[in-house]
Design brief:
With about 120 residues, the protein is an all-beta fold. The protein contains no helices and eleven strands. β9 and β10 form a beta hairpin. It starts with a strand and ends with a strand.
Length: about 120
Amino acid sequence: QVQLQESGPGLVKPSQTLSLTCTVSGDSITTDVSYWTWIRQPSGKTLEWMGAIGYSGSTYYNPSLKSRTAISRDTSKNPFTLQLSSLTPDDTAVYYCASSIGIPWLYDYWGQGTQVTVSS
C-alpha cells in the first residue's frame, strides 16, 4: 500500500517561496514508469495540475506556473518536493501530492492534502 503525506508551512507571506515535501512509503520514487505529481485546489475552484517528476528524474511543469515552480527529489530518502516562488494570495490552496504508474495523469494514490494560505 502506497502512502503519501504532504508537509510544509500552513501560512506564508506574499513574495516568499513555498516549500512542500511529499513523504512516500510503500513504493520508491524511482520505480519504473512511476510519476510523482503536485496538484492544488483553491477554495471553490477546480484542481490544477502543477507539475510532476518522473522515475528517471525528468520534470514536467504547467506552463502557467513553470517560471515559479521547481520539483525535485531525494532518491536516498524517497521524498519529493515542490518549491513555488513569488507567492501571491492567489496561490492560497490545498496542495496535494499524487502518484501514478504508467499513465502520468491517472493517479493511483493521493496524499490527504495540506492547506497553504498566502497572507501578510
